[in-house]
Amino acid sequence: MATKTAKGGTNDVTEAEFKKREAVWPLVLFYIHVYVLGVTGVYIACTAASWSTIFFTALLTLLGMLGVTVGVHRLWAHRTFTATAPLRLFLMLCQTMAGQGSIYSRVQAHRLHHAKFKQDEDPYYSKLGFLHAQLHGNLLRYSPQQERLLQEIDMSDIESDPIVMFQKRFYVIMYIVLNVLLPMNTPFQYFGQTFGVAMFVGFWLRSLIVLSVGDLVNSAHFVWGTHKDFKPTDSNSIFFITKTFWPQFHYLLPKDYQSGEFGNYGKDTGTTMIRVFAALNMASDLRTIPSVAVRQGMTVAVETKRPIVECVEEQVALAQKRMPEDHFLNREKFM
């Protein structure tokens, strides 16, 4: 029986090899430490950490999450708003404290995730289960097939951003300083904590929280998305968990600054921070998708037999031109 092959550089490889992903064992070992020592950090935080250490660690945790959600996801991956150089620098430093890898690598992978959503090529297994998207996909090398697809992702906008490219070049050094030394040295040097407390709380516990929350960007649709076969009458959980179609809407029309990573829309911390940045003239050109434009786009699609997304994007572009620059100050009026 002939074996299917795929062109993989100078040599032909089998289709299975072309799509195969290998575990990154140092990363697997690191994640084991994160979960075991991070949980231990919860106990130490409750029994031995000072309030100064807890508040400082919480601040760095929130900044890291801000760098992932507002920075990598909404600004650089989806271009839902435009940021000034000082804001981009701030978000870059925040993202470095998340310890997830460089902005460049995360944006490239997330754009492939959207391009191949619920397909075999998606690096985060969006067609499988939550644990595959949340954890498993982060512990494997990209397959030769995915490596090829990653090279086809348009990254010209990212490559033209000197702040992102600076971080990419010096990421390892910045990671050590901002994600390892700063969280541990500050409690140890200035708050009178033992090195053990500083390490377990400042590094391991914080890493557990930030990495887990950051990975939800690619797996949240399993938690908060309502799939087409879900019926409220099938489960009484509808009374306890508010489910929406929002995650699916995000994968259909991702360029909306109000895109909540965790099942909500327009009222989360990330969206609020973008509005604050806009009020401070550090963010501009906030892109959003008015519900009226969605309805008009769907009507045009039905009448013209054109793709729905194409028609909706046309109506969104027209609506965006009609909205004032400060539309974010009166969200109800323009949504």
UniProtKB/TrEMBL annotation:
Keywords assigned: Fatty acid biosynthesis, Fatty acid metabolism, Iron, Lipid biosynthesis, Lipid metabolism, Membrane, Oxidoreductase, Transmembrane, Transmembrane helix
Primary site of residence: membrane
Keyword flag RNA-binding: no
Record-linked InterPro entries: Acyl-CoA_DS, FA_desaturase_dom
Membrane protein topology class: Multi-pass membrane protein
Residue ranges constituting the Fatty acid desaturase domain according to the UniProt record: 50-250
Gene Ontology MF term list: iron ion binding; stearoyl-CoA 9-desaturase activity
CC annotations in GO: endoplasmic reticulum membrane
Top-level taxon: Eukaryota
GO biological process terms held by the UniProt record: unsaturated fatty acid biosynthetic process
Location(s), subcellular: Membrane
A Pfam family per the record: FA_desaturase
Cofactor(s) listed in the protein's UniProt record: Fe(2+)
TM stretches of this protein: 24-45, 51-72, 170-191, 203-224
Protein family membership: Belongs to the fatty acid desaturase type 1 family.
Free-text note regarding domains: The histidine box domains are involved in binding the catalytic metal ions.
Annotated protein name in UniProt: Fatty acid desaturase domain-containing protein
